[in-house]
Structures are given as C-alpha cells and as structure tokens.
Design goal:
It is built from 11 helices and 15 strands. The chain is of the alpha/beta class. The protein has a single domain, classed as Glycosidases (TIM Barrel, Alpha-Beta Barrel). It has an 8-stranded parallel barrel, surrounded by 4 helices.
C-alpha cells in the first residue's frame, strides 16, 4: 500500500489572499520581489511546449523548480478557510527566497464550483463550507496566482479533491459528474494567463490505462462512482479556449508512466506534459526505474515531477532524485510548502518547512540547499 499524505483536520486561522506591499529581498546576489519593484517594466510570464522542452516567451528552455502549496484542496470543504497558513505577499516572498520559479496548487472541484453544503458533505464534520466556496474560493485562487506571477513564479493548477465518494482521500480518477465542468471553468478563467499549467488529475490509482484515457466505473471505500478519462478533460480545457500546457500523471499515484505515450489523449494544441510523482517509498523510486520509464519519455515530451519528497525526515532520496532530474533536464516540485509550526504537519507528512518564514525542515533541507547551489552556479535563468 502506498503511504499517503495526512491531511490536517484541525481548525486554524482563516486566511484569504491579502495584497500587502512587500519589499525586495536580496539573497546570494539575486533580486527577489514583486515584478516591477525596480521600476522597470517586466513582461508577462509565459510557458509553452516546444518539442520535449518547456520554453518561455523568448523561446528559451526552462525547467520548473518549485514547491507544492497544500491546503486549498481541503480547507474549504472542511469549513474553516481556503488556505492552510498565510497566502499574502510576505509568505510568497519566503517561497521566492528559496529560488523557486513554480508553485503547484491543489484544487477542490466542489469548492471551485460551489457544490458543498453543511448537510450534504460529511467531510465538513458539521462545519459550514459555504462561506469559502464558489465565488470566494475562485477569487482567492485567482488572486493567489496573480501574486505568484508578481514574484515571477509559474502556477500549476491541479485537480486534487473531488465532489465524489472518498473525494478528500485519493480517489481512483476524476469523476464524470463534475470534473469536466470544473476544468471548463478553470480553463476559461485562466485562458489568457500564459504563466499557468493545468495538471488534470493529481494521482490516478487502482485503474487500467483504458480507464485512465476514457473513464470507467470505479470503487472507493465510500462507494462507487463513474470516472471520466483524460481525453474528456483535455477536450474540456481546449474547448474553453485555453492553450496552455497540460500535465497528465500516470497510474500508481502518478508513479507509473510506463504506458503514458501509448495512451496519449488527442490534443489539438500538442502541448501535453508528463507528470511524475516519486517518494522514497513509492513504486518507481530507484535510478533503474527512472532510467527505464522516465528517461525515454523525456526524449519526446517535457517531464515535470509534480511531487517529490520522502517520509523519513531525511534527504538521501531527494538528493538522488534532484541530481538525476538535473542531469536529464527534468522539472521538479517538492512536497509540501506547509509548516510544522504553526500547523499539524511534520517532516514525515512530509513538510518542507518548519515555519512560514521558510526555514527548511529536515526533509526540506535537500530541496533548499539544492536550489541554492543551482542559483549560485547561475543555473536558474529567470522565466519571461
């Protein structure tokens, strides 16, 4: 059984995005701060697919190196907020100080669409999610993405929690009732924002590749539901007029991409990206497996490691994977930028930071030091 992350279930400070002014930080000679803080005009962020690479607005190859910001997939549905921890400019400046150029944001389809009530959502445990869903939730996400862009960071929007049985666990696949509607709405909202990527479903699991592509009936501990396949979700995004890159995670909690290319959805924009998740205890966690499955895909498609980390409060596995990914030109984002204090996270959850000032946890030390080394060697070009 694949160990999964523990989702915090306690009440905490309810936070919405606050556009507080933030001063420019300086770290190892790299200016970090809001775009335009120097008074110079800064072009909009733009990311697209060219062959097997991600490129910026100037056509330069870029890698997305960053973190996951967990909370927006569960706080709203549990009825105590939208973000888990701060989401203001100061908190984003702390992320930027790690030399991060991308943040992955897990989303909840029911919160985005405004589908929850106290009566019909057992996950709320008697709390009222309605103040945090619908327009309030969408506005908070839009504002947070805009603030990330001010700090020259790409946003990856990922469907992680479903309005379906076991929706706050890790359900097998996106659901046929709401997921295509969710992606139509998200894609329409962000269709002019070229600094966004769409990660269509967090971690498919317990299904076949044919189900992954076209949908099927799935079972969960809370009951069955009809899933929707990646083809329908890609179509929903493109019909909404959005041409941004689309990330697709394979089977086995996005740890098995062995038949990814053989089941590729049709995409008129030809902008599909391999999504891969790897932890020290997941199925594809060795250099042998990476060489066998990920390296061949990277020859033909961009590969983004949407989640990487380890559950043992150590750094050995993460160090090995980051070095492998650097050598192969693969992007990666650590799990997760959520603090041990205040909060109920721990380095075994795993959490990258001990506090929202950005002090690294024992697990996060690997990513923190690795990005600092890349920055010192000037191997982190800005995204434009």
């Amino acid at each position: 059984m694949v160990p999964r992350r523990i989702r915090p279930l306690r009440a905490c400070t309810r936070t919405l995005v606050a556009f507080a002014a933030a001063g420019v930080l300086s770290f190892q000679g790299l200016a970090l701060g809001p775009a335009g803080a120097s008074g110079k005009a800064v072009p909009d962020i733009a990311i697209s697919v060219k062959g097997n690479r991600l490129v910026d607005a100037l056509g330069k190859s870029v890698r997305l190196l960053g973190v996951n910001r967990s909370g927006t997939e569960y706080a709203c549905e549990q009825g105590w907020g939208i973000f888990d921890g701060p989401s203001d400019a100061e908190s984003i400046a702390a992320i930027a100080a790690w030399h991060v150029n991308a943040v992955r944001i897990p989303l909840n389809e029911g919160c985005w669409l405004g589908e929850y009530t106290t009566a019909d959502d057992p996950a709320a445990d008697g709390a009222d999610p309605t103040p945090f869903e619908g327009a309030a939730y969408r506005s908070a996400i839009v504002s947070y993405v805009a603030l990330l862009h001010r700090y020259r960071m790409v946003a990856i929007l990922c469907l992680s929690a479903l309005d379906a049985p076991d929706g706050l666990g890790v359900p097998p696949m996106a659901d046929a009732t709401y997921s295509a509607t969710f992606w139509s709405s998200v894609a329409k909202t962000f269709r002019t924002d070229r600094g966004v990527l769409f990660d269509l479903y967090n971690e498919p699991n317990g299904i076949s590749w044919s189900c992954w592509l076209d949908g099927c009936q799935v079972q969960t501990p809370d009951g069955p539901y009809q899933s929707v396949g990646m083809q329908a979700l890609v179509t929903a995004v493109r019909k909404a007029g959005a041409a941004q890159p689309i990330m697709l995670g394979g089977l086995g909690y996005a740890g098995d991409d062995s038949q990814w290319a053989a089941h590729l959805p049709r995409d008129p924009a030809k902008s599909l990206v391999v999504s891969f998740h790897t932890y020290n205890s997941t199925s594809c966690s060795t250099p042998t497996c990476w060489d066998r499955t990920i390296v061949p895909l990277a020859r033909d498609y961009p590969v983004v490691t949407g989640e990487v980390g380890e559950y043992d409060c150590s750094t050995g596995f993460t160090d090995r994977y980051l070095s492998f990914a650097d050598a192969k030109g693969i992007s990666y984002l650590g799990w997760a930028w959520d603090a041990i204090a205040p909060g109920s996270w721990s380095c075994t959850t795993p959490a990258l930071i001990t506090d929202y000032a950005g002090d690294p946890s024992p697990e996060g030390a690997a990513l923190h030091s690795h990005l600092a080394e890349l920055a010192a060697r000037k191997e982190l070009p800005p995204i434009v």
